[in-house]
C-alpha cells in the first residue's frame, strides 16, 4: 500500500476543511488559539482526506491492473485483512477484518489487489453492509469468477463510545455470489476456513 504523502493533500481542500474544523472547535467552547490546538484544524483536515482517500480510487481498475490467465478453479481465500473505515452516520471509526474468497474462472489477480480493494472501499464514509457488498461486486465485475464470498467482522466506535456504549459488540456481515450462493458445501468450506 502506497503511503499517502504530504504531496497528495490538496492545499485548497485542506485549507477549506481546516477553516470548518476551527469553527467547530469554537462552537464546542474551545480556544483555538491555545498552543495544543493551533495546528489541529490542519491535522484534522489531512486526516479526513486520508480516511476518505478511497473516493479517488477504482476497485475494478486495481484488480484489472494485475490479472493473469490461470486454470486453477479452487477457492482462493485471503482472510484477516484489517480494515479501518468511518461510519457515515457519525463519522466515527469502525475497525475490523475482512475475509474474502473467490473461485477463479480462468483468471486470477495478485493477492495484494484483494487487500487493496478492501482498503479502497473502506476508506470512504460507509456502512458495513454496503462495504461488504461493494467488495463482492467489485471482484465479481473485475474477474467474473465462479463465485465470491466476503465476510466482515468489525467493532463500531459509534456504538462503543456513545449511544448504547456496548464496547464488546462485534458486527458481522456477509455477501456471496455464484458458487458460494448455490452450493452450501462451498459456502460452508469458506465459513469453516475463516473460523
Describe the structure in your own words.
The protein is α+β, with helices and mostly antiparallel strands. The protein has 8 helices and 7 strands. The strands form 2 sheets. A 5-stranded mixed sheet has the order 5-2-3-6-7. A hairpin with a 5-residue loop joins strand 2 (76-87) and strand 3. Helix 1 (11-27) crosses helix 2 (40-51) and helix 4 (111-122) runs antiparallel to helix 5. The longest helix has 17 residues, at 11-27. The model has no long low-confidence stretch (mean pLDDT 95).
Give the gist of this structure.
The protein is of the alpha+beta class and 195 residues long. It has 8 helices and 7 strands, in the order αααββββαβαβαβαα. 42% of the residues lie in helices and 25% in strands.
**Cα shape:** elongated
Order of helices and strands: HHHEEEEHEHEHEHH
Q: What do the pLDDT scores average to?
A: 95
| Helix-strand category | alpha+beta
Radius of gyration: 20 Å
Percent of residues in helical segments?
Answer: 40-55%
Q: What is the terminal separation in angstroms?
A: 26 Å
**Strand order, largest beta sheet:** 5-2-3-6-7
Largest sheet: 5 strands, mixed
Percent strand:
25-35%
Total number of beta strands: 7
Number of helices: 8
Give the low-pLDDT segments.
Answer: none
